[in-house]
Amino acid sequence: MAEIVTVERQILKKNDEIAAENRAVFRDEKLFVFNLLSSPGSGKTSLLEQTIARMFSKYKIGVIEGDVQTDLDAQRISKFDVPVIQIVTKGGCHLEANLIQNALANFDLSGLDMLIIENVGNLVCPSNYDLGEAEKVVVVSTTEGDDKPVKYPNMFRVASAMVVNKIDLVPYVEFDVAAVKKNARSINPELEMFEVSCKTGDGIDSWCGWLEQKIAQAKSGAAV
Amino acid sequence: MAEIVTVERQILKKNDEIAAENRAVFRDEKLFVFNLLSSPGSGKTSLLEQTIARMFSKYKIGVIEGDVQTDLDAQRISKFDVPVIQIVTKGGCHLEANLIQNALANFDLSGLDMLIIENVGNLVCPSNYDLGEAEKVVVVSTTEGDDKPVKYPNMFRVASAMVVNKIDLVPYVEFDVAAVKKNARSINPELEMFEVSCKTGDGIDSWCGWLEQKIAQAKSGAAV
Predict the structure, then answer these.
(1) What ipTM was estimated for this complex?
(2) CA distance B5 to chain A (A)
(3) A7 to B92: CB separation less than 8 angstroms, yes or no
(4) Which of A80, A110, A197, B4 is 20 to 30 A removed from B188 (C-alpha atoms)?
């Protein structure tokens, strides 16, 4: 009974050209950059708060916040003493490389160790837009269902790491952590996986350890 | 510090023309059609399961499922004896009116009382695409944060009703039901609101009562 309808994917050539320019800038600065992606409300900003709180005494961190409307996320981050820029897309459903390039004009990258780009909450469109980052990280919350990797495969295909957030809610929801990992591995066998609770702090150390490795790699000029 | 960057919205003229054709078909059939929207994992399909279980002995219901990949949702719905068509967008982040028009070619609408279109999980793009439906209904889950209406205002502006799902999880999450309602009303004062748990069944009767009113209006030929 199911009918399959194909929708053509846009060619993203111009975006990819600008992303390559951004990537060259980041490489010259030996700066580790990651692009944080998820559904609305999975806890991207909470993860950033936990991450910055854990790492900012040791590393210089900058943040670019992307939202459809409001600077609520930038306000949450600005309580830390880190530079933060809010991009408001005014209805746009994803960040594009040129928006990042424009934002960089307002950023002093010298001396930064890590730049975090928090994308618009959307599991579909942002997966198609390279911003010049070294890694894409997808957050999935235990309240969303363990079928998300197979329903939104491109996001999990392009990501280097998956952070399973709200692990403290597992007793109250129908979510099988082993199943989400298996589903994610079926799409991307290389995916790094972390289980965290931004409420209790569980698992944040392990996640920050991975970021520290990536920062060290970028400093050493290792290919990203 | 925040920089505001504007991304132009596409003109959606052709989509709106086809949506008007769909709407005329639905009106001729005196059929109530609603478009169900939310983030991934908010519980759209669970709400459909509860709704169909409650209503299918009294009403003839059809379902169109939209997903980026997989027919998992159509499989869940097909356990009921209702016609269901799965549209797979193959990476497309929203349904468009022409996809619905194509799907209708495979649907016998005569005798149907209600057609439910479950959109792709995405709080941004689907809000811009009229499919010809009478009403848009947005589901927001208590695990997503009560700031969603102000962060994704267009979705709440175009919706007629908001269903707050996973109300059973309120004791375990930081979510203020009064705040999400206030935020939603600040965007759209006319919004109908329902609090439900698809796990316990709480609130489903009230939600189904609203649907029954809408079905009766469509039957009577009231303007939609």
Answers:
(1) 0.79
(2) 6
(3) yes
(4) B4
